[in-house]
Write a structure and sequence with these properties.
10% of the residues lie in helices and 52% in strands. By secondary structure, it is mostly beta strands. The chain has one domain. It has an 8-stranded mixed β-sheet, with helices on one face. Strand 1 and strand 2 form a beta hairpin. The longest helix is centred in the last third of the chain and has 18 residues. The radius of gyration is 18 Å and the shape is globular.
Protein backbone atom coordinates (compact mmCIF):
# COMPACT_ATOMS: atom_id res chain seq x y z
CA UNK A 1 0.00 0.00 0.00
CA UNK A 2 1.47 3.36 -1.00
CA UNK A 3 0.65 6.95 -1.88
CA UNK A 4 2.82 8.63 -4.48
CA UNK A 5 3.01 11.92 -6.36
CA UNK A 6 4.66 12.68 -9.68
CA UNK A 7 5.03 16.12 -11.27
CA UNK A 8 6.29 17.04 -14.73
CA UNK A 9 6.62 20.62 -16.02
CA UNK A 10 7.69 21.26 -19.60
CA UNK A 11 8.57 24.65 -21.05
CA UNK A 12 10.04 25.86 -24.35
CA UNK A 13 13.36 27.68 -24.15
CA UNK A 14 14.42 28.97 -27.56
CA UNK A 15 11.76 26.79 -29.18
CA UNK A 16 13.29 23.64 -27.63
CA UNK A 17 11.13 21.82 -25.06
CA UNK A 18 12.78 21.34 -21.68
CA UNK A 19 11.70 19.53 -18.54
CA UNK A 20 11.85 22.23 -15.88
CA UNK A 21 10.77 19.76 -13.22
CA UNK A 22 10.48 15.99 -13.18
CA UNK A 23 9.84 14.80 -9.64
CA UNK A 24 8.32 11.49 -8.57
CA UNK A 25 7.84 9.32 -5.52
CA UNK A 26 8.03 5.54 -5.82
CA UNK A 27 6.43 3.60 -7.36
CA UNK A 28 6.09 6.33 -10.02
CA UNK A 29 9.08 7.34 -12.12
CA UNK A 30 9.86 9.62 -15.08
CA UNK A 31 12.35 8.60 -17.74
CA UNK A 32 13.33 11.62 -19.78
CA UNK A 33 14.68 11.66 -23.33
CA UNK A 34 16.20 14.47 -25.31
CA UNK A 35 14.02 16.34 -27.76
CA UNK A 36 13.46 14.49 -31.02
CA UNK A 37 14.38 16.02 -34.38
CA UNK A 38 10.81 17.14 -34.92
CA UNK A 39 10.93 19.20 -31.71
CA UNK A 40 9.01 16.88 -29.37
CA UNK A 41 10.25 16.09 -25.87
CA UNK A 42 9.66 12.36 -25.38
CA UNK A 43 9.04 11.23 -21.80
CA UNK A 44 8.06 7.87 -20.33
CA UNK A 45 6.04 7.45 -17.18
CA UNK A 46 6.42 4.22 -15.23
CA UNK A 47 4.61 2.62 -12.31
CA UNK A 48 7.24 0.36 -10.77
CA UNK A 49 6.59 -2.61 -8.49
CA UNK A 50 4.27 -4.41 -10.89
CA UNK A 51 1.36 -2.00 -10.98
CA UNK A 52 -1.26 -0.83 -8.49
CA UNK A 53 -1.95 -2.90 -5.38
CA UNK A 54 -4.88 -2.63 -2.99
CA UNK A 55 -4.74 0.65 -1.08
CA UNK A 56 -2.46 2.40 -3.58
CA UNK A 57 -3.12 6.03 -4.54
CA UNK A 58 -1.12 7.69 -7.32
CA UNK A 59 -1.36 11.37 -8.25
CA UNK A 60 0.24 12.59 -11.49
CA UNK A 61 0.47 16.23 -12.56
CA UNK A 62 1.72 17.44 -15.94
CA UNK A 63 2.04 21.07 -17.06
CA UNK A 64 2.91 22.08 -20.62
CA UNK A 65 3.90 25.70 -21.19
CA UNK A 66 3.46 27.89 -24.29
CA UNK A 67 5.07 26.51 -27.48
CA UNK A 68 6.27 23.39 -25.62
CA UNK A 69 5.67 19.97 -27.22
CA UNK A 70 5.77 16.75 -25.21
CA UNK A 71 4.83 13.11 -25.67
CA UNK A 72 4.32 11.10 -22.47
CA UNK A 73 4.14 7.32 -22.87
CA UNK A 74 3.79 4.38 -20.56
CA UNK A 75 6.75 1.98 -20.48
CA UNK A 76 4.51 -1.08 -20.37
CA UNK A 77 1.11 -2.33 -19.27
CA UNK A 78 0.02 -1.45 -15.73
CA UNK A 79 -1.48 -4.34 -13.74
CA UNK A 80 -4.37 -3.58 -11.40
CA UNK A 81 -3.99 -6.00 -8.48
CA UNK A 82 -6.84 -7.29 -6.35
CA UNK A 83 -8.27 -4.80 -3.88
CA UNK A 84 -9.14 -1.11 -4.16
CA UNK A 85 -6.71 1.32 -5.80
CA UNK A 86 -6.93 4.78 -7.33
CA UNK A 87 -5.08 7.08 -9.72
CA UNK A 88 -5.60 10.81 -10.26
CA UNK A 89 -4.16 12.57 -13.32
CA UNK A 90 -4.17 16.34 -13.82
CA UNK A 91 -3.02 17.76 -17.15
CA UNK A 92 -2.61 21.50 -17.69
CA UNK A 93 -1.77 22.59 -21.25
CA UNK A 94 -1.20 26.35 -21.41
CA UNK A 95 -0.55 27.08 -25.08
CA UNK A 96 1.54 23.97 -25.71
CA UNK A 97 0.99 20.51 -27.15
CA UNK A 98 0.69 17.20 -25.29
CA UNK A 99 0.26 13.65 -26.52
CA UNK A 100 -0.66 11.49 -23.51
CA UNK A 101 -0.25 7.80 -24.38
CA UNK A 102 -0.04 5.65 -21.23
CA UNK A 103 0.31 1.89 -21.27
CA UNK A 104 -2.80 -0.31 -21.09
CA UNK A 105 -4.49 -1.15 -17.79
CA UNK A 106 -4.74 -4.88 -17.04
CA UNK A 107 -7.20 -5.65 -14.21
CA UNK A 108 -6.55 -8.81 -12.19
CA UNK A 109 -9.15 -10.93 -10.45
CA UNK A 110 -11.17 -8.97 -7.84
CA UNK A 111 -9.54 -5.65 -8.74
CA UNK A 112 -11.47 -2.46 -8.00
CA UNK A 113 -9.83 0.63 -9.47
CA UNK A 114 -10.79 4.28 -9.84
CA UNK A 115 -9.11 6.57 -12.38
CA UNK A 116 -9.83 10.30 -12.38
CA UNK A 117 -8.56 12.64 -15.11
CA UNK A 118 -8.82 16.43 -15.12
CA UNK A 119 -7.58 18.23 -18.25
CA UNK A 120 -7.40 22.01 -18.56
CA UNK A 121 -6.39 23.65 -21.82
CA UNK A 122 -5.95 27.27 -22.77
CA UNK A 123 -7.05 28.55 -26.18
CA UNK A 124 -4.71 27.37 -28.94
CA UNK A 125 -3.47 24.33 -27.00
CA UNK A 126 -3.43 20.86 -28.54
CA UNK A 127 -3.97 17.56 -26.73
CA UNK A 128 -4.33 13.92 -27.66
CA UNK A 129 -5.36 11.84 -24.64
CA UNK A 130 -5.56 8.05 -24.80
CA UNK A 131 -6.60 5.33 -22.37
CA UNK A 132 -6.38 1.59 -23.10
CA UNK A 133 -8.05 -1.19 -21.15
CA UNK A 134 -7.65 -4.95 -21.45
CA UNK A 135 -10.24 -7.38 -20.14
CA UNK A 136 -7.73 -9.14 -17.91
CA UNK A 137 -4.96 -11.72 -17.95
CA UNK A 138 -6.11 -14.22 -20.56
CA UNK A 139 -3.28 -16.63 -19.76
CA UNK A 140 -4.51 -16.86 -16.16
CA UNK A 141 -8.14 -17.34 -17.08
CA UNK A 142 -9.03 -13.92 -15.69
CA UNK A 143 -10.99 -12.45 -18.56
CA UNK A 144 -13.51 -9.95 -17.12
CA UNK A 145 -12.99 -11.23 -13.57
CA UNK A 146 -12.34 -7.81 -11.96
CA UNK A 147 -14.86 -6.30 -9.53
CA UNK A 148 -15.29 -2.75 -10.79
CA UNK A 149 -13.46 -0.06 -12.78
CA UNK A 150 -14.50 3.58 -12.58
CA UNK A 151 -13.28 6.23 -15.04
CA UNK A 152 -14.03 9.90 -14.41
CA UNK A 153 -12.92 12.43 -17.03
CA UNK A 154 -13.35 16.19 -17.21
CA UNK A 155 -11.84 18.43 -19.89
CA UNK A 156 -12.07 22.20 -20.13
CA UNK A 157 -10.92 24.10 -23.20
CA UNK A 158 -10.52 27.87 -22.86
CA UNK A 159 -12.50 27.61 -19.58
CA UNK A 160 -15.42 25.93 -21.40
CA UNK A 161 -16.45 22.43 -20.42
CA UNK A 162 -15.81 20.15 -23.42
CA UNK A 163 -16.52 16.77 -21.86
CA UNK A 164 -17.45 15.40 -18.46
CA UNK A 165 -18.15 11.73 -17.95
CA UNK A 166 -18.30 9.21 -15.15
CA UNK A 167 -18.22 5.61 -16.32
CA UNK A 168 -18.38 2.52 -14.13
CA UNK A 169 -17.35 -0.71 -15.83
CA UNK A 170 -18.23 -4.14 -14.48
CA UNK A 171 -17.85 -7.53 -16.16
CA UNK A 172 -21.61 -7.57 -16.70
CA UNK A 173 -21.66 -4.17 -18.37
CA UNK A 174 -18.90 -5.22 -20.76
CA UNK A 175 -20.90 -8.20 -21.89
CA UNK A 176 -23.84 -5.88 -22.56
CA UNK A 177 -21.91 -3.59 -24.93
CA UNK A 178 -19.38 -5.90 -26.60
CA UNK A 179 -18.72 -9.50 -27.48
CA UNK A 180 -15.95 -10.49 -25.04
CA UNK A 181 -15.11 -13.48 -27.26
CA UNK A 182 -14.33 -11.07 -30.10
CA UNK A 183 -12.89 -7.99 -28.38
CA UNK A 184 -10.16 -7.97 -25.73
CA UNK A 185 -8.84 -4.39 -25.90
CA UNK A 186 -10.73 -1.10 -25.48
CA UNK A 187 -9.35 2.34 -26.39
CA UNK A 188 -10.71 5.76 -25.44
CA UNK A 189 -9.33 8.87 -27.16
CA UNK A 190 -9.80 12.62 -26.92
CA UNK A 191 -8.35 14.89 -29.62
CA UNK A 192 -8.69 18.59 -28.83
CA UNK A 193 -7.20 21.69 -30.43
CA UNK A 194 -7.27 23.83 -33.58
CA UNK A 195 -5.54 21.08 -35.60
CA UNK A 196 -5.95 17.88 -33.59
CA UNK A 197 -9.67 18.53 -33.40
CA UNK A 198 -9.87 17.69 -37.11
CA UNK A 199 -7.88 14.45 -36.81
CA UNK A 200 -9.61 11.51 -38.50
CA UNK A 201 -9.79 8.02 -37.01
CA UNK A 202 -9.97 4.79 -38.90
CA UNK A 203 -8.83 1.22 -38.46
CA UNK A 204 -6.76 -0.72 -40.98
CA UNK A 205 -8.67 -3.96 -40.37
CA UNK A 206 -12.33 -4.97 -40.33
CA UNK A 207 -11.78 -6.79 -37.02
CA UNK A 208 -11.96 -3.57 -35.00
CA UNK A 209 -14.86 -1.23 -34.30
CA UNK A 210 -14.28 2.53 -34.09
CA UNK A 211 -16.85 5.22 -33.25
CA UNK A 212 -16.38 8.96 -32.83
CA UNK A 213 -18.41 12.03 -31.89
CA UNK A 214 -17.74 15.75 -32.04
CA UNK A 215 -17.45 17.77 -28.83
CA UNK A 216 -19.29 21.06 -28.45
CA UNK A 217 -16.10 22.95 -27.58
CA UNK A 218 -14.36 21.52 -30.66
CA UNK A 219 -12.52 18.23 -30.96
CA UNK A 220 -13.37 14.56 -31.12
CA UNK A 221 -14.12 11.79 -28.64
CA UNK A 222 -13.35 8.26 -29.86
CA UNK A 223 -14.22 4.80 -28.53
CA UNK A 224 -12.71 1.74 -30.19
CA UNK A 225 -12.80 -2.05 -29.69
CA UNK A 226 -10.03 -4.41 -30.81
CA UNK A 227 -9.62 -8.19 -30.92
CA UNK A 228 -6.25 -8.04 -29.14
CA UNK A 229 -3.69 -5.60 -27.72
CA UNK A 230 -1.52 -5.71 -30.82
CA UNK A 231 -4.33 -4.29 -32.95
CA UNK A 232 -4.99 -1.55 -30.38
CA UNK A 233 -1.31 -0.56 -30.26
CA UNK A 234 -1.13 -0.49 -34.07
CA UNK A 235 -4.13 1.85 -34.11
CA UNK A 236 -2.61 4.13 -31.47
CA UNK A 237 0.71 4.20 -33.30
CA UNK A 238 -1.06 5.29 -36.48
CA UNK A 239 -2.95 8.01 -34.60
CA UNK A 240 0.27 9.30 -33.02
CA UNK A 241 2.09 9.47 -36.35
CA UNK A 242 -0.74 11.37 -38.01
CA UNK A 243 -1.05 13.72 -35.03
CA UNK A 244 2.64 14.58 -35.23
CA UNK A 245 2.33 15.28 -38.96
CA UNK A 246 -0.62 17.60 -38.32
CA UNK A 247 1.34 19.47 -35.67
CA UNK A 248 4.63 19.50 -37.61
CA UNK A 249 4.05 22.89 -39.23
CA UNK A 250 3.74 25.49 -36.46
CA UNK A 251 1.12 28.23 -36.60
CA UNK A 252 2.32 31.68 -37.62
CA UNK A 253 4.12 33.47 -34.83
CA UNK A 254 5.05 30.35 -32.89
CA UNK A 255 8.15 28.18 -32.76
Amino acid sequence: MSASRATLRVSAAGCTPTAELAAAQAPQRWNLCTAAQDGWLEVTHQVMGDGFFGGDLATTRVSIGPAAKAIVRGVSATPLRRGCSAAVTRLNIAGGQLLWLPGPLVPHRNAKHSAGVDIRMSAGSETLFAATLLLGRTGWGEVASFRELRFRTRLRYDAELAIKEDITVTPGSLVAVADSDRYEAFVSLLAIGPRLGSLSFECSTEECLVGSSQLRAGGTAVRALFPHLGAALEFLGSVERRARVLLDEPPQGRC
